[in-house]
Specification:
It is a single chain. By secondary structure, the protein is of the alpha/beta class. It has three domains: 32-121, PAS domain (Beta-Lactamase, 2-Layer Sandwich), CATH 3.30.450.20; 136-292, Alpha-Beta Plaits, CATH 3.30.70.270; 305-582, TIM Barrel (Alpha-Beta Barrel). Helices cover 42% and strands 22% of the residues. The chain contains 21 helices and 22 strands. Strand 4 and strand 5 form a beta hairpin. The protein starts with 27 loop residues before the first helix and ends with a helix.
Length: 583
């Protein structure tokens, strides 16, 4: 062929229509066989209701009752003279049939041709979509829209009967998921839903909102004094252990409650206030509950404002670092500095970490904040070097949650490497974060070692581990919490603990830092009664901003030494200090 599509088709090729045989030319036996093989049920009836034809498929779909119903429909179709579609149910197996009843006139007689198509699979899929839209796939509970509809319906009907919304949040569910696996977590949610559902009244409604959150509508709470008792009963349903995938799992829920109409007359208002009360409960203890009140509303507004400011501060990079020296208590030379983050608010006022760090952790903003701190340190390296010397170590704090997050710690290691001086960084993590997370030792410490960074255990002594646990920790530095250092010269028991930590740390090759030294007496004790070499605290210096370096006086001396920031008050103390410095 030459590819020309316009050639003559009369050269012996048959036209398409030549191969088609008309139905009238087909043998009756062939027509009967085709009719019986059709997957569609076919019936034909006359105006008197007599069934003239029924194929094998229709015979399997209809029983006598269904056939009688079809005959009645057929009579109406002939009378109206229009095609009608109906949905029928096959009595044998409850299949759903979509049937078209069509009036026809053949050889002068009015007939009805009915064809039935099995649409069971399609209907099941539709019902599945409807169910997934209205019900939770995992637990089978209704979704929160069901509660919303109940609240709206009550409002439209003017139903003044009070009801309560209880917001349940499973405590530490992420830890359960991480430890036992997501399959076990899902199984636990199903069991929690089952227990809570077993404690409901006839008109109560339990829904799953998302994740580990449930919303419960408690109907008819006319007796407000009985509401705490009902909440406690539901809470206590979760006290017994759950057996999941061979594990015995203990779970609890923090519960917040709002009551209509006192705390709102719309679903959104009631849910918001129940959510606010739930966060108050979380702040108390696991398994606690709280009923909304006006004070919570004020706190929620303040929290919302603070959250907004924090997000904007991160977006605008309105964070600065203050650097507090770690000092050799005998030579007064600066051994290292700890970077302490501060927020500069929209009015230029510096805020301490207590106002925003815990919120940043809760909101999942702490990772971004930590990277901003690294950027700030990197941009200040030349000034730090000029003030304290190029060999000065720089400590950066990492939250307990971050210490167990391998992805974050990898990104932190990359950021430290990009500063060009990763070997100068000391990553400070709390005692609990190190001891409770095995992967910190096996994966994260090697990650930091690979770039030359070091590890410091911050606030040691405040956790719940035994002193022997220190032997299992791979670290370069141990910072003894200030609770042991405060008035150390007056507290024999703290002195004993301090000596034990000092001795064990020395045997493990860890440098010891005494945190929170604020008085000459504390310093004098450390100098006289211990071999601890380094300390940190307001006695030596408050945290210094980069802009304070040039004005600090004495900090930029050739020996990079530091004078005490809080001299003794009387001559006796000055004499003691002079004697101590001569040792």
């Amino acid at each position: 062929m030459d590819g020309d599509c316009d050639g003559d088709m009369t050269d012996g090729a048959a036209a398409p229509g030549d191969a088609i045989i008309s139905v009238s030319a087909m043998a009756p036996a062939v027509l009967d066989a085709v009719l019986e093989l059709l997957p569609v049920g076919v019936t034909v009836q006359d105006a008197r209701g007599n069934v003239l034809l029924i194929n094998e498929t229709a015979f399997g779909q209809l029983d006598a009752v269904a056939l009688a119903e079809r005959q009645a429909i057929g009579a109406a179709v002939i009378e109206v003279g229009e095609t009608v579609e109906t949905e029928e149910t096959a009595p044998q197996d409850c299949r759903v049939l979509l049937t078209q009843h069509r009036p026809v006139r053949i050889e002068g007689e009015n007939l009805v041709l009915s064809t039935s198509l099995d649409i069971s699979a399609r209907k099941a899929a539709e019902q599945g979509l409807v169910r997934r839209a209205d019900f939770d796939d995992l637990t089978g509970l209704p979704k929160s829209e069901a509660v919303e509809a109940r609240v709206a319906s009550a409002a439209r009907a003017g139903d003044a009967r009070p009801f309560a919304l209880a917001f349940f949040d499973i405590d530490n569910f992420k830890h359960i998921n991480d430890y036992y696996g997501h399959g076990a977590g899902d199984a636990l949610l199903v069991k929690v839903a089952g227990r809570l559902a077993g404690g409901l009244g006839r008109d109560d409604l339990l829904t799953r909102i998302s994740g580990d959150e449930f919303l419960l509508l408690l109907a008819d709470v006319d007796d407000r004094s009985g509401l705490p008792g009902r909440i406690e009963e539901l809470r206590d349903l979760l006290r017994a252990p759950f057996f999941v995938d061979g594990f015995e799992v203990f779970a609890s829920a923090s519960i917040g409650v709002s009551v209509s109409p006192d705390h709102g007359d719309t679903f959104l208002a009631l849910r918001h206030n129940a959510d606010t009360a739930m966060y108050r409960a979380k702040g108390k203890a696991k398994g606690s509950y709280a009923i909304f009140d006006a004070a919570m509303e004020r706190e929620a507004a303040e929290r919302s404002t603070l959250e907004q400011r924090l997000r904007l501060a991160i977006l605008d990079k309105r964070f600065v670092c203050a650097f507090q020296p770690k000092v050799d208590i005998r030579s007064r030379e600066v051994h290292g500095v700890e970077a302490l983050v501060r927020l500069c608010d929209e009015n230029g006022i510096i805020q301490g970490p207590g106002t925003f760090v815990s919120l940043a952790v809760e909101l999942g903003l702490i990772d971004e904040l930590t990277h901003l701190v690294v950027e700030e340190i990197a941009s200040s390296l030349d000034l730090i070097d000029a003030e304290f010397g190029e060999s000065t170590s720089i400590s950066i704090n990492v939250a307990a949650r971050q210490a167990g997050d391998i992805a974050f710690m990898r990104s932190l290691a990359d950021a430290l490497a990009r500063t060009g001086a990763p070997q100068r960084f000391m990553v400070e993590v709390t005692e609990d974060a190190v001891i409770s997370k095995a992967q910190f030792q096996t994966e994260i410490v090697p990650l930091l070692r690979n770039i030359g960074a070091k590890v410091s255990i911050d606030d040691f002594g405040t956790g719940f581990s035994s002193l022997s646990a220190l032997a299992d920790i791979t670290a370069d530095e141990v910072k003894i919490d200030r609770s042991f250092i405060t008035d150390i010269h007056k507290r024999p028991r703290s002195q004993s603990v301090l000596r034990a930590i000092e001795s064990l740390s020395a045997s493990l090759g860890m440098t010891v830092i005494a945190e929170g030294v604020e008085t000459f007496e504390e310093l004098a004790y450390l100098q006289a009664a211990t071999t601890i070499r380094y300390a940190q605290g307001f006695y030596f210096s408050k945290p210094l901003f980069v802009g304070d370096f040039a004005r600090a006086g004495g900090h930029a001396a050739p020996g990079r030494g530091i004078d005490p920031a809080r001299p003794p008050r009387d001559e006796r103390y000055r004499q003691n200090r002079t004697q101590a410095m001569r040792r």
